[in-house]
Structure formats: C-alpha cells, structure tokens
## 1
Amino acid sequence: MKAKKLFFTFLTIIIGILTYNISASAANNNADIPFTMETIHPNDQINKSTSYIDALYKPGQQQKLQVKVRNSSNTTQHFIVSASDATTSNGLAIDYTKNKQKLIGSPKLSELINGNADQAIAMPAKSSKIVTFNLTMPREQFKGIIMGGISVYKDDRFYQQNNNNNKGVSINNRFVYSTAVLLRNQKGNVLPDIKLVDAKQAPNNQSPAIVTTLKNDKRNFISGVKTRSTIKDKDGKKVAENSTNLGQIAPISQFDLSTPLNETLSPGEYTLDGQASASDGQNWTWHKKIIITQQNFDNTQKNIVTNKKPFPWAMVIIITLIVVILLLIGLLLYLLLKRRKNEQ
C-alpha cells in the first residue's frame, strides 16, 4: 500500500505542475491594457464622423492636436504620449511610432510640432487627461497630405525596475494605442505612386531573400495593397515567388519588400518582376536585372541560419515524464502481483 500511495502522490504532483504551467501560460497571454485614447476633433476637421484627425489648415496657421487619455485601472499609471511621422514598415503596414524607417521628403509632422513631441504623464486611478501638441503649418502651400500619428503606451522607466526584480527570463509586450493625423492646406488629393529603388540578395530574418526597396514619393497613402514578386534565373526558370495582401503604404515613404528563398542563390544573372495593386484600382509594375556576385553569395551565406532547428527540449521533457510514469505503473503492478502471490 505504501508503494501505491507513493505512486499516486507522484502522479498528482506531475499533473499539478503541468496544470499550473498551462494556467500560468494562459494568464500571461492576457495582457493588462489599462488605458484608452480618444481623438478630439479640431474645429477645422474635414469629417467629424472619423475616429482620427483629418484637418484642413491654412499655410502658417498655428493649431492644437489633442487626444484624451483614460486610465481605467485601479492604480496610478505612467504613460508616454508621442506625436510621430507615419512611415511604412517592411511588412507593408503604416507605423505611427518612432522607428528606423525614414521619410523621403519634407514637410513632415515631426517638423511641425512646437515643443516636446514625447510627453510623459502620470494619471491617478480611474482618471482621464487631455494631452495637447502645438503645431505650426508650413508657410508654403503643399499638395496632398502630411501624415503622422499620436500614440500612447506605458512609460517603461516606471516599470523596468519591477521587471528586473523578477527572476528568470521574461518577455514584456508593449501595447501601443495609435490614431492617425492627416493635415492638409488645400482640398483634393494627389495620386500616390510606387517606384523601384533597388533589389538585391540579402539576409532577412536569418534566411536568404531578394530584398526589393520601393518608395511612394507622393503625398497620399495607399490602402488595400496586393503585391506579387517573381524571381527567375538566366534561363527563365522560376526560382522564387511571393505575394502579400491587405498592405498599407504611407506618403513619401521608403520600405523593403522581401521574397524569401529556399537557399542562397548562386552567383549569376537573375531577373525580378514585381507588381502591385491598390483597393482603388491603381496598378504598378517593376522589372530589375539582379547580378549576384561571389561576394554577395558569401556575405548572404555567412549571415543566415542554414537548416538549424532548435533542440526540442519540450518534447524531451514530455517523453521523459511519460517514461517515468510508465515505469512507476510497472513498478506498482509488479508490487501488487508480488503481494498477491505472497498472499496465495
């Protein structure tokens, strides 16, 4: 009976550990988001039914951009409210936060803000606060739009110490709430455009790829973007193809579009053919001859991970637990049979 009790005790502990890990993982996936942000439309708002700012200002006019931040938690929270340029990420999405992507023209929103574009605020529990950015429109009239965004997120300086005190490895996800800002000084839009800048073989996320650099040098954004890229060798044989859907491209922005490769392309001559379309029916195409040198091949090969899979520790642990449980069950059966034999 002691062996039987020991077995069930051990089994209960194992089940408890597994259940705790699953519950903890599920709890960690529910990020705490204790804030919201609401746009305050200016008097010169073009369409007040939109959730973002879209205003028509005169050249040189001074104006205020305002948002209302609400702390819905039961404790004091610290936030950063930031006004930034709208850029295009390499995943074909419009990004309203500060990042490495750059715009290729002026004027832009970051140049119009008077004072600090990053405001730190402390908010008591269950409170709201209006945050204001003062700006001055360009003195020279421009066509199209200046596009940016206002974002709010937790101020890491007040939470980093608590994270450092936690033992073990932790992953901190930053939730950012953003709203778009569109500034104009004349009615009507300009047609956006997509142009090829360059294309070459390069590492992308530790894998080989043909990286195509594109730009939209017009002052209008593009929505519902679909792309297709095809790579062929000098004999016209297709060696790679990739497509994307539901992309967005910011005005006057430059970005990369990657076509993944199964392996690094050997030195030689290749061609890239690309096409893109927008939800409004516009279409663009580009063609590029790509010469891959031995140096490009060596540099790409050196900076990728070649079919190295991570060691399956989780599978090893699961198999080990199953083996231990089976051994304990076998031991229990052996002890029970031995006891029954002795009783007979």
## 2
Amino acid sequence: MTGSPYAARRVFAQRIPFAPTHYQCFDAARLLAESVIGTEPQVTCVVGIASGGTHPARVMADYLKVPCHTITARHNTSDAAFQQATGDVEVILPEELPGRFTGTVLLVDDIAGTGATFAAVTDALRGRLADHAAIMTAALFRNRGCLQNPDRWAWSVNDWVAFPWESPHDGLTQPVPALRRVNSR
C-alpha cells in the first residue's frame, strides 16, 4: 500500500509508554467481543493481525465461539519504541485462510496507530467477502493520531504502548487507566 492516505503521525506526548497487564488486555478483549454480539450480519470469524493482534483475537474468538485466523501485516521498520508509521503496509494472506468469508469478519489488532494496517488488511480481504459480508475492526488501543478509527476500541492513548506479549520495555512505564467502556465510531 504505497502512498497511503493513512500515513499519519502517531502521538507520543509524554514519551513514557503505557504498560497494560495481561489481565487488562484479556478483559478489554472480552468486553470488545461482548460489544459485537447482536451485530448484523453476525460475526462468523475473528482475524487477528500478527503479531500483536493474535492475542486479543484468540480471546475474542473463544468468547464468541467462532473460528480464529491470523494475517500478517507489517509497516514498522523494527520493534523499537516510538516509531512513526510509514503508511506502507505489507499484507501476507496465509494459504489456510478461507477463500470466502460470510457474515461479519471481526478484524483485530492490539493498537490502531494510524489506521493504515486496518485499511490495508481490509483491502486485502475485500475480494474474499461473500455478498452481504462485512468487515468490522477492533483494537485494544487507539493512538490519538489515528486518522481512521477502528469500529471498536478500548483505550485512547497519546503514547507508545508496551504490551505484555512483547519484550519488556527498558525504562519507565505508565499504568493504563481503568477501562470504563468500549468506544465505537
């Protein structure tokens, strides 16, 4: 996805990463899954964006009792903290991914930094959607620099997020505030 309109700048106000716990991430994923119950068309599968989206995607798929798939999408040049997004996203669809999706596909990532990853993966899946199928996006976190919000998210942040499934962050971190509600656009 070259020259992406989603090449926004992520916001890093304090430059101290947020550090959610495993429990906070699990609870947020469960609440996000609850928030899509009753969606029409019904959620028929969850697709986690590797690597960060796979953890919440598994929780959500288990809660919704639907299959879980994984897609790889990358645009960061490394795993270093405080990187700005390039907007150029490489999407890799695995061979075992279904050829056709029905219902609503719940596309999950750990964070929506700019919106570029969700946009690129949605574009890559569009040709696999059956008539009347839809894609819904969900993220644990949304950076305040995100140009296109996901359909659902738990927290809005203005700094980097050091997830519990990543290498520990060297230095100070800040706690994540208590989750009050699921946000939606």
## 3
Amino acid sequence: MKSIPRFRGPSIVVLASVHILLFVSGLVAGSVLRHGASFITPFAPAEQVRMFFNQSPMAVRVSSFFLFGSAVPFGIYAVTTVSRLRYMGVRAAGTNITLLGGLIATIALFFSGIAGWMLSVPDVSDSIAVVKAIYFFSFLCGGVVYAIGFGLFAAGVSVTSHFTRLLPRWLTFLGIVLAITGELTWFSLIAFPANFFIPITRYVGFIWMLLAAILLTRGRKANPASAG
C-alpha cells in the first residue's frame, strides 16, 4: 500500500499571523510617530495633504516600511494556501481564482507601500501635484485593488472548500461575504461612500484568513487519488 506523502510547505497559520502583525505594527508605529496628528485622506484639500506628508515624513516612512513588508508573508500565504488545497484533492478552477486574487492583493500591497515611502522624501512632498498623484495611487492600491484581490482570494478558497467540505459552512459563508464586500469596493471609484467596504474587507478578512489557515492545516490529509 502506497503511503500518502506529508504536505511540505510553510505554515499558513504562521504566515497569516506575521502578515497581520506587520500590518498592525505599521498602523501603530505611524500613529505614534505622528505625535497625535490625525490621519488625512487623499480627498482632503491639496495643501492639507502636502502639509501632512511634509510634517510627518518619519511616520509615513515607517508605516510604509511595514506595509511593504506585510506583502511578503501574505504572498507566500496565498500561494501556499493554493498548494494546500491542491494537496487536499481540490481540482477545480477555484484554486486558480484563489491564486489570481492572492497575487493581485500582494502586488497591490507592494505598490501601496513603495508609493507611500516615496511620499516621505522631502523633495517629493514639496510638490502639491506630485503628492496628490502618488497618494491617490498608494491609497487606491492599498484600498480598492487590495480589497478586490482579497475578495477573489476569499471567494476561491470559500467556494472550493464549501463543495469539498474542507471548511465549516459558517466560515465559507463569511468568506463569500468578504468576497462580495471586496468586489463592491470597485464602486468607490465613482461613489465615495463605497470606501466603507474597504476596512470591512481588510479587518474582517484578517480574522477569516487566520481561521481558514488554522482549519485547513487541521483538515483532512491528502486525497489518496491525488497523492498517487
């Protein structure tokens, strides 16, 4: 009787935890280094936006450093999750959707972090037009693009896990809800109130991805048919 090979790959629980820790560290560090100054959105008056970056370069640089870094464990988490789903016998298009969404979200975090870092450079933050353009790019990548990518990722994992019973129904339902809120952020490009879906997708998504990682790791072993 042929033995079923053990899954070989990094722990998706650890990767999810590191991603969340790095992202939250960026928020905390940025808040502390701003010395009480309130966060400002790219929709604020141009001069206020320029002054925010001109007066808080270290806060912007450190928070962008953590945001950029958080993309690495998330990207590894995404591709490892796809690998684990295939190891567990999933042979559906959902795994490719999961991979696509994970790559979109990862690249979005990289671009958002590096664009934010650029705004910490004094020569850049002196120009109102340049600051506005780069900040909108960073905001859109870290917000809309990330949320849409994460929504696709959550949809791919949840739908395939629902049909193969790899995750409990309540968690697959939550993943589908996150997929919907993630895709609804697209409407923020024409209606500002739709930005409300971005923090829902991100912060509830943290809980979902960690729970999904734990339960997938504890799930059944490889499908014997696929292991052969």
## 4
Amino acid sequence: MTNVFVSVQNVDTKNTKWIDTRFSLQDIEAGRNKYAESHIAGAVYWDLERDLSDMTKSAGRHPMPEKEALTELFRVSGLALDDHIIIYDDGGSPFAARAWWLLQYAGFTNAFIALEGFAALQEAGVAIATMPTQPIKTAVTPKWDESIYASRQFVEETVAEKTASALLDARSAERYRGEVEPIDPIAGRIPGALNFDWEQLKKNGLFNMDAAVKEQLGQVIDAATEVTVYCGSGVTAAPLYAMLKHNGYENTRLYVGSYSDWISEEDANVEKDC
C-alpha cells in the first residue's frame, strides 16, 4: 500500500511545498481566479491546460507536456526531488491527482494529495494568502519513472496481448459500453478493457478511504495484476490510478492520451456492447 492522500487532521504545514490545482472543465479560468482570490500561503498554481497538459499536441484532449516543459515547471515552482509536497484542488476532483501523477513520474516520491481540498484546509487553520507566490527557482533534475507511464504503443501491445497488463477504463459504464459518447467522436472502449467508473471512488463528494473501495476494486481486478488505467482524456484516470496505488496495486500505469488519443488515428480499433 502506498500512502497517497493526506487528511487535514494530519497535514504538516512545516517545510511543505504547496501546489494549487483547482480547475473547472466547464470554466477554464475558474481555478486561476480562485487562486487569485485566496490560496494556501506559499502555494504555486498549476493550471490543467497551461501547465499539466500540452494543448498544442494532437495526442488526445489533454496531452502530456514534454519532459523539458515539465522540468521547467518544476524548477520555476521551486521544487526539489526530496521536498514534502501537498497538492490540493476542491476535493473529490481529478486535478490534484493529475499533478500528483506527473510528480510521481518525475521522481517526486514525497508528494501527497490533500483529501478534503482547499476549503477544508482553510477551515482547519492552514495559513491563507492572496498575493501570488514567487518561489526561488531551482535546478532540479527529474528522475523519470517510465514504469508508471503507458505509451500508445504499450497500449497497442496490450490489446494484442503482448504485455501482462490489463486495461481499466475509468469512464462511466454507459460510455464504456458505447451506449453514449458526449465528448469524443467515436463511442466505445479500447478492446479488452475492464471498467471502474472513477465516480465510484467518492463518498459525500470526497475520495472514499473506507475499505469498501478496495473490495470494489478487487471485484473488478486483482491487486496482483498489472493495470493500465485510462479515461477519456487522461484526467479522470489519474484519481483511479491514485486510488489503486493507495489500495496496494503496485504495478500500475497511466495511459495519459487515453481514449481520445486511441481513436485519433483512422480505423481506430474499438469495442462496444451495442
């Protein structure tokens, strides 16, 4: 079991680097505006589309930035590999998990997701600021962990049964079955994928730390199985990845391009139940 989440009751505010990832897919300026209004003192803001994605790419709807861009982001954010880092959003959202996964990929293994989000941190008495944080730039060099990253080629090999990995789709059951597709141009799923809707990970709007989640995950896929998670654009798959790691699934990858990347080429190979 990997410790991924930290609750407000256990937050150590000393020697902690904070990252604010609040965002809204319906209003892309909402998170940035919230940060400008107030944020945890010392927090830098990472925007889903400006910092945690490279929207100039065609590899899905939220493509992963190049390593050079991520390295610069880490440096201007004042980070070092051994820093104690807490990432927050509004709680129960996928954005802190997206940033957390990128930090894991880059070798920042002492990073955690704030379970309850900004409002609860503020209510718990964590210091708040209104002026933007201006960190001292570092020269950090990431230690990339390719074992948690799934490229399109890796997924193609998985579909062809050339890897030991199992695919796990984090979208709703209706989208997984191909009954509806409100976002992407082709309905269906990556062939052979199993399904676990990431919304099932939540209870009362926050990620559920109860043992029941581990039981639910275990009914879909065994903890000893190598798992590659994906969703529509790679964003909501991140909390499923995080919860898998939290519940003892040690051999887990994230397909950042996800379904939107999978169907980006002609003659996309998809499955559907209807």
